[in-house]
Specification:
With 305 residues, the protein is of the alpha+beta class. The protein has ten helices and four strands.
Amino acid sequence: MRLQFFLSEIGVGLRRNLTMTFAVIISVALSLALAGAALLANKQVDSMKGYWYDKVQVTVYLCNKADATTTTSCAKGAVTDDQKAEILKNIKALPVVEKVYYESSEAAYKNYEKQFKNSPMASSITPDQMPENYRIKLKDPKKFAVVASAFNGRPGVQSVEDQRDTLRNLFALLGGMTKAAYVALAFMLTVAMLLIINTVRVSAFSRRRETGIMRLVGASSFYIQMPFIMEAAFAGLVGAGVACVMLLGGRYFMIDAGLKLQEKIPLVSFLGWDSVVKVLPLVLLIGLLMPALAAFIALRRYLKV
């Protein structure tokens, strides 16, 4: 088996089916770029979960005068100084609590103004309507139920809220988008596989006379099939290389330059270059093996050698 023969056969096959080979390269590039993007998006969501879930706080809202008529737990009126002192003491006594921060009605109102300054409701809210609260940082954010069961319904407590509920909706949306990307990825890979199979069949049909002669002189199945498999693998590898360039360029133009998401969204720690580079070998490996496998399947059914 001579390397020169295989290289010449690959060159002949690529020239004869240049248009279809180009289509294979583009479809493989798009599929693998989407695959890499989906993997990176999944890593980004996991990274954000780990970062933000460690920083979320449980908030114990205290009763004020406005709650007396609207909240059953505050029917006896605003929280008293003795109740506040007792609640704070009990919070600090919980083993799951790491830190406690107190926020007055005035401070809560100022924070509300900053967050909703463009909202028409901002002007209708007064400081006395904002509840005092204790913001609790837990040693383990999953232990919210311990705090909720200890303070929900207690005198002077309006409610106990877990900030994870808000973040959970955000991450559910991001997770749904990632799943949608995986569905699109599966569709694109299927299209790429079918296109590769058809390209190999056309290439084999155009060279049926050469393969027939090789069969007559006793060439093995492997010897006849290998040039076609290598053609598909070469086209897939080129497509994978294009996908790698797309991933690197997408990371650069979306985060570092162009959109500059890192500057516009400083609260999010985006994945670094190392995470992108780690995905590239997998993209190249899939780009090499997937077309070769598709070609092998197509040839076993078509050549029958």
